[in-house]
Structure formats: structure tokens, C-alpha cells
Amino acid sequence: MHRRHFLAGSLAGLASYSWPKWAIGKKNGLFPLGVASGDMTSGSTVLWTRLVADLMQDNGGLGETDLKVAWELARDPKMKDVVQRGEANASHMLGHSVHVDVQGLLPGTEYWYRFYTEGEVSTIGRTRTLPVGNVPSMRFVTTSCQNYTHGYFVAYKHILEDDPDFVVHLGDYIYDTSFGETFRRHDREEAPRSLEDFRRRHALYKTDRYLQAAHARLPFFTVIDNHDAIEDNNPEQYDLRAAAYQAWYEHMPVRGYRLGSPNEFHLVRLINAGDLLQINMLDTRQFRDKRDLCLDNLDKAVGFSNYRERCGALLEEGRTMLGQEQEKALYQSIRENRAQWNVIASSGPVLPYRVDVGGEDFGYIGSWDAYPANRRRLAQAIQDADAGHALILSGDLHSFWAMDGHKVTDTADKVPAEEFVSSSISANWPQPLSEPIAQNLAKNPHVSYYDGTKRGYLLHDVTASSWRVRYRAVGDATRHDAKVEDTKVFEVIHGQQGIIER
Ligand SMILES: [Fe+2]
């Protein structure tokens, strides 16, 4: 039967649909994108799904009618011990996505969940609330940069085997365009130009079996980076950016989006794991001042187009990467931290990287180097923190890095924290971008490790006295049988500056 006829027929019955008489079907035809959870606190979690009949049709082929979705949450994987159930509206205005913010849960506890609609049932997902009080250890991963055209997201197969408590995704969850050599095709070559374009792109990504399996088994915390949305905070791009953010929200287990206020999406949130760690997840995209200044003086051949020596405007004290409101909240959170580890998660690297080109000194990696005053304020907040060892986690560069901010040679750019940069799930790291980094390591004594040849992720094992991070390199992402190995293992001892190789 044609999907539209099926829906028209069954919608007539919706008025008499009375929960909790479950209309359980055997198919998951309206749930081809799977399920997900995330943004957990000690007592809550966000459950996500999106109803889709046809991935490539506008509004997922479901037209302009809202659908009712029932959900249930249980303490066991067989869904026998159900502790909460309810109904949610899958609004066509939000692409028939469903976000259920379940409250009143126990801390540090695993739960399982599923959705029902139109006689169909989703796969069963697992989620886990954050712990409180004395927390002896946590395990989690940082990932970023999954380009569909460059390979499978097979890294998630290994992440699942590593069995972390949760995933911190540092952005570039989708790619607007491809680059370099490609392995599988996007839904279209050109960058998305509308809400429906962005929906299709997200839906395509969610069909990757490894990504979908990871979402079903592991809760995620996620931030946006340049390929998810728009590079710059440019008013001329606000409509397009609003479409990108809406589609992003529609496909992510997150809170905080309000339809009709597209440029006030406050994603910033704090991961609190008892006395062990806090992680401030930063939004470095929505509220930043314009990045590309002094365009006349830019040499596009040099990295990511920052050349601050010739650009006085980049050096202005008032310049912000995070926006004033986020800066204020972040510094308060850092200063008032009580946990052992005081962590900042930024899409792009916070610490600087200098390269020498033709005898001239350039800032290279283009992230916080374009906002030095903001980085100084961040460094000051870390300096002023009541407690906790500061660490920075970042991604964006499709390569593995380990850096010690205490060793930055230029005093104005020092940040009293170690930084671990995870590589990409699948996105390539072109040689022309990698080469200037490899050639300038001696100029950057704070970088103790750089490898631009490997895909992968970071696996963090945290206790009160030690932060151990395994650099998990995944072989050829175009192969389902790609293997994983530790290319490096580093440790930071609580209260001691520096990174120790293990
Ligand atoms: Fe990326």
C-alpha cells in the first residue's frame, strides 16, 4: 500500500487511539533513522526519534499532518519493567521529530526505551543518567568530523566495543559538501540550501549502520561546528543558518530549541559527573564575532586564514568567540567547579599553532587564534578556578594532537591546561593542510604529538588521580573490517602539569 494511503487510513483512527493500549506492529518502517538519547543529567535524559516514510521526500514523505507517538522507558533491555510511559507529538513543523525530556530518573542508572506509532515500533535504545556524589571512575569518548563521502562510520563499531558511558561529539556531524577523493555519494553534490535539503542530508547520515547502532546503545552530547551549519556569524546567512540549525535539532537528542527563534538556540550545557568531573560544552559557532577580518592581508595558502600580526582588528579586547552571555556563564562554571577535573569541550582547538612561511610568522589552525582576547579571558578563569585540574578536549582538524598549554612560548597565548584533540570518524585530512603543521613542530614546543595520517577517536578513562587517554586509530574507513589500535596512550596526573606518554 502506498504510504500516504496507509497514513490517511490510519489517521482517521487516531482520535480513538487511547494510550496505553499499544498498537504494536512488527515493522519499523517509520523509524528508518533509529533512536537516540542524550543531554543527560543525573535525573533526566532526552529520548529522540524522527518519523520518516521516505528519506528523500520533503518532510520525510509524511506531509503536513502531525503524528502521535507513544514512548516507554524501562529498567531492563527486554522492556518488561516499564517505569515511565507517555505520548509525544511528532510535529510536521519539526520534520516529525520527537524529543522526550524524561524527568524523575535515578542517577547513574541504565534505562531502555522505545517508540510506537501507526502500528509500528522502533528498535529499543539504551540510555544512562549521569552519576552523583562520589564517582570512582568514568569512561567516555570524544569524536568529530564524520564525512559520509569519505567512508563508513565504522569507528563507532569500535566505540561500541569500548563500551563508554557516553559519547561527546565535537561537531561536523554532517558535511555540507565533500572534498578530495570520495568513496560514497551525498544526496546531492551542492551544499544544502534549504530546510528540506538539510533534512535529507541528516537523514542520509543517520542511515549509516554504525552511527545508528551507536546512537541506540550510547547517549550523546553534541555541539555544532562549521560543516553542520554556517561558517560565520554573518547576518546575511541567517536564514540558511536557521534552516541548518533546525534540521540539526530535528536529528539530535538535545534540548533548548524553540521554533520561531532560530538564532537563539542556546545549546550550551554542563556535563556533571558527581565529584569526578564537569565538562563545559561550548558553542563556538553561533555567537562569535566575524572570523575573517583584514581579508586584503590574508594569504589563503596559509592554513585557515588567520594572520593576526597584520590584523589589528583580530587583537581587539572586546572580540568574542562565545558571545558575552556564554562567556559569563562559562567563567562562572569554571571558577565555581568542585569536581576533580574541570574540563572544556570546544569544537576546534583552543591552544595556538604558529607556522613559519617565507620567514613570516602565521597563526595556523584558525580556531581560537582568531579570538586571542577571548582565549586570555578563558585562561584567566581557569587560573582563578576554586578547584579541579583543567583539561581541554577538541576536534575539527581530522588529526590527532596532544598539547600542553603551560608550554606555549608566547605568554599572551598560554592556557594553564592540557589539550587532547581527537581525529575524524571518516573525514580526510588533505596533505597541503597537514604539511605546514608537520614542518613547524619545533616552533611549537607545547605540541607533544601530532599525527595527520589517521582517522579515529579518543577513549578517556578518568579517575580522581589520573586522566588516561587512548588515541584509538581506525584503519581504512572505507572497509567494514577496519581495525582499531592504540596509536598513543597519554596520562595526566591530577595536579601535575604536563602529559606523560604511557
Ligand atoms: Fe571537520
User: Would you identify the CATH architecture of the largest domain?
Assistant: 4-Layer Sandwich
CATH structural fold name of the largest domain: Purple Acid Phosphatase, chain A, domain 2
Say which molecules are bound, naming each kind only once: fe (ii) ion
Cα-atom Rg, whole angstroms?
A: 23 Å
Q: If you average the pLDDT, what whole number results?
A: 89
| Structural shape | globular
Oligomerization state: single chain
Please estimate the helix content: 10-25%
Major sheet details? 7 strands, mixed
CA-CA gap between termini: 60 Å
Name of the level-1 CATH class of the largest domain: Alpha Beta
Notes on the structure:
By secondary structure, the chain is of the alpha+beta class. It folds into 2 domains: 3-128, Immunoglobulin-like; 139-284 and 391-501, Alkaline phosphatase D (PhoD) (Purple Acid Phosphatase, chain A, domain 2). The chain has 8 helices and 24 strands. The protein has a 7-stranded mixed sheet. Strands 12-13-14-17-19-18-20 form a 7-stranded mixed sheet, with helices on one face. Strands 3, 4, 6, 7 and 8 form a 5-stranded antiparallel sheet that branches. The radius of gyration is 23 Å and the shape is globular.
Question: What attributes characterize this protein structure?
Answer:
24 strands, 502 residues, 8 helices, Purple Acid Phosphatase, chain A, domain 2, Immunoglobulin-like, alpha+beta, binds fe (ii) ion, 2 domains, seven-stranded mixed beta sheet, disordered N terminus
Quick overview:
The protein has 502 residues and is an alpha+beta fold. Helix content is 17%, strand content 27%. β1 and β2 (45-50) form a beta hairpin.
